[in-house]
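Teaching note: in complex prediction, the entire set of molecules is handled at once rather than each chain in isolation. The prompt given to students was simply: 'Predict the structure of this complex.' The entities are:
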Amino acid sequence: MAGAGPPHYASWPPPAGHNLPPMGDMDEVRTIFVLGFPPDVKERELQNLLRWWPGYEASQMNFKGEQPMGFALFSSAAAAMAAKDALQNLVFDHETNSTLRAEMAKKNLYVKRGVTGMGTETPPFDQSKRLRTAGDFSTSHYAPPGAFAAPPPNSWVPQSFMPPAGSYDPYAGYGLPPLQAVAQPIVAPVAPAGYVPMQNTKDNPPCNTLFVGNLGESTSEAELRGIFSGQPGFRQMKVLRQGRSTVCFIEFADVNSAIAVHNNLQGAIVTSSDRGGMRLQYSKNPFGRKKEFMNNHQDGGAPGVPTSGTNS
DNA sequence: AGCACA
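The expected output is the structure of the full assembly:
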């Protein structure tokens, strides 16, 4: 099973800058996945945030979970990557301490062109009951209606950034200045206050999602996020309040990242909790995967291995 | 100890 599975992230062109292939292959993932929005975010906000970006094609906000999830499609993997980096750690809303986290999506956002019911495509994550796109963009790229003269200040938008009008070079804006320097993470990395020996009986087989237990009801999500969000491979986390205790799920990009954190942070003290150290276990069900029992006897034993999409 | 989301 240790198969060298197909890479989740298609191999991008190296950041050499100018040797980029003209308009990436169509099978490259050129969609980003953005988390960290405040719960009251509007899809329009995502669109207005991204439509300035070179190569932006469409976006969609998914409100299914506790946290809104944004997806945005770009004209190429390079453009998507650049936008992803630009959004990384962007403070979206100071009031709610919302800091964005962006990753490459696993699949491309499916943009419904018309209302034609070709519903066989599978957009990232859940099948869209709620497929929304940028709306009406009949031109190859979105041309702003002219309402906005200047991008919002204090943001990632480089000065040289102008929505291209006629000739469109998706790489014009690439090789951008180090944008991360502008957007400071508000989720400061938090080092655990200390460690407590934690015996972990009854763990599950390793997978890319950790289950965090032994957390008191007072446990602060911010502290957890501070501890975990900086860990290599961190994808997302979800906190669940269960009466007088709290549990938390953390998804990582791959099983190895989860294993590392499982070992390194075992028993780490969570200050806001009143129970000392946290217990880290592998989740019974990885993020985004349903347990399949009777449904699929063929795939009985690899909890950590997502059935990577049949990319047709 | 407590395992959601799809």
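Point out the following to students. Confidence is low (pLDDT under 50) at residues 1-22, 115-185, 293-312 of chain A. The radius of gyration of chain A is 21 Å.
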